[in-house]
Amino acid sequence: MWTVVYIASNRAQAEMLKNLLDREGILANTRPAGISMLGDGIHEILVLESEADEAHAILCQHAVK
């Protein structure tokens, strides 16, 4: 089962975060989730439910840098 771990503000950010997770060995996908006021719309970052905690930790570590 796929689980949303982050909502990116645009497609470029979603792809960057997906690639980060992929490099860390986490299988990730993105999907459009709506329209943002800034352009191409928000996108969800999804991972397998079994890897959600690890993916969230990776994303949090990345945000601190």
- Indicate the mean pLDDT: 90
Strand content: 25-35%
* Whole-angstrom Rg: 11 Å
Q: Which regions contain 5 or more consecutive residues with pLDDT less than 50?
A: none
- Structural classification: alpha+beta
**Sheet of most strands:** 3 strands, antiparallel
What would the principal axes of the Cα set say about the shape? globular
Tell me the number of strands.
3
Tell me the series of helices and strands, N- to C-terminal: EHEEH
In percent, how helical is the residue content? Answer: 40-55%
**In angstroms, what separates the terminal alpha carbons?**
30 Å
Number of helices: 2
Task: Give the neighbour order of strands across the main sheet.
Answer: 1-3-2
Report on this model:
The chain has helices spanning 11-23, 52-64; strands at 2-8, 28-32, 43-48. With 65 residues, it is an alpha+beta fold. The protein is globular, with a radius of gyration of 11 Å.
